[in-house]
Amino acid sequence: MSFPEDLLKELLRRWHMVKKYHENYLKHLESREYDKASEDLWGIVNNLASMLSLLLRGKPIGKHDELRKFVNELISLKGDIRLKELLLACERLHANFFHNFMDEQQFEEHRVKAEELISILEKCIDEELRKYGITI
């Protein structure tokens, strides 16, 4: 099976964005800037979900509501109801960027869930790409 070059370029562009968000996340985490680290996690989740959406549906996620719908599709596809809870934690982190309402303990609880969702999305992307003999 051949893999469309334009799709690969878009996936790689988003993968580089994920890596940049991750770099920033680690910096903000170390400096205890939890509001900024929250938005970095949201950026990682959003881009990974868009990558997976490109692979499964042929289009990225453009709006917040589309992300929710896509996660519901993933729940049906993967049978993992935890995804909804993990996404809710990420949405709270996204709100934390704007309102900076989380204390360190709250941030930590949500951060762990966001990192779990990130891991799941990365695994799904990897599985899809391996079907084409591609690794990133």
SSE inventory with pairings:
Blueprint (H helix, E strand, L loop, with lengths): L4 H26 L3 H24 L6 H15 L3 H18 L4 H27 L6
* Total strands: 0
The percent range for strand residues is under 5%
The tally of helices reads 5
Structural class: mainly alpha
Helix content: over 70%
Alpha carbon gap, first and last residue: 18 Å
What shape does the CA trace take?
globular
Unreliable runs: none
Order of helices and strands: HHHHH
Mean pLDDT reading: 96
Structural Rg: 15 Å
Largest sheet: none
Structural summary, described in words:
This protein is mainly alpha-helical and 136 residues long. The chain has five helices and no strands. The chain has helices at 5-30, 34-57, 64-78, 82-99, 104-130. The two termini are 18 Å apart.
Structural features:
mainly alpha; 136 residues; 81% helix; globular; single chain
Summarize this structure briefly.
The protein has 136 residues and is mostly helical. Helix content is 81%, strand content 0%.
